[in-house]
Amino acid sequence: VVGIVRRKWRQYCGMLQPNPVKGSNRHIFVAAEKKIPKVRIETRQADTLASQRIIVAIDSWPRSSRYPVGHFVRALGKIGDKATENMVLLLEHDIPHSSFSEAVLDCLPSLPWT
Predict the structure, then answer these.
(1) Which of 34, 37, 97, 109 is buried deepest, with most CB atoms within 10 A?
(2) What is the reported pLDDT for 70?
(3) Peptide bond into 112 cis (omega under 30)
(4) How far, in Å, CA of 1 to CA of 10, rounded?
(5) pLDDT of residue 47
(6) CA distance to 14, 28, 48, 59, 65, per residue, from 69 (Å)
(7) Which letter, b or e, does each residue of 57-82 get, where b requires 16 or more Cβ atoms within 10 Å of its Cβ?
(8) Which stretches of the chain drop beneath a pLDDT of 50?
(9) Which residues have a Cβ under 8 Å from the Cβ of 57 and sit 6 or more positions away?
(10) CA atoms within 13 A on the CB side of 100
(11) Which pLDDT tens digit goes with each residue over 41-58?
(12) Contact at 8 Å (CB) between 35 and 8?
């Protein structure tokens, strides 16, 4: 290997660990998967995101830093909510979970099925 041009970072689900220093924009993200290190992110939405599952993408990992640096992508929902936790499992394991298109649904036989 001569060099790494760009890493293929993926997005991770987890929760925000608020900074104990009030008014700070820097926070630590804890991934749902324990193998993933904590990620440092900057956000002004910490109060809102503290009780939600969120998605974070890693941008870089400086040599002098203990944690990689990332950014907030989107919120999934409240921690502990059944639909939110199901979404986390599906996203973490790369399971397709989008709705079927109208063309696919039109191929189904009409209800009731016997």
Answers:
(1) 37
(2) 93
(3) yes
(4) 22
(5) 87
(6) 15, 10, 21, 6, 9
(7) ebeebeeeeeebebebeebbbebeee
(8) none
(9) 9, 10, 11, 12, 70, 71, 73
(10) 7
(11) 998 888 888 899 999 999
(12) no
Cβ neighbourhood burial of 14 (10 Å; 0-12, 13-18, 19+) = buried
Q: Which residues pair with 68 in a beta bridge?
A: none
Read off the tokens for 38.
């904590």
Q: Would strands 26-31 and 11-17 be described as parallel, antiparallel, or unpaired? A: antiparallel
DSSP 8-state class, residue 23: T
Look at residue 7 in the predicted model and tell me its pLDDT: 65
Q: What local confidence, expressed as pLDDT, does residue 6 receive?
A: 65
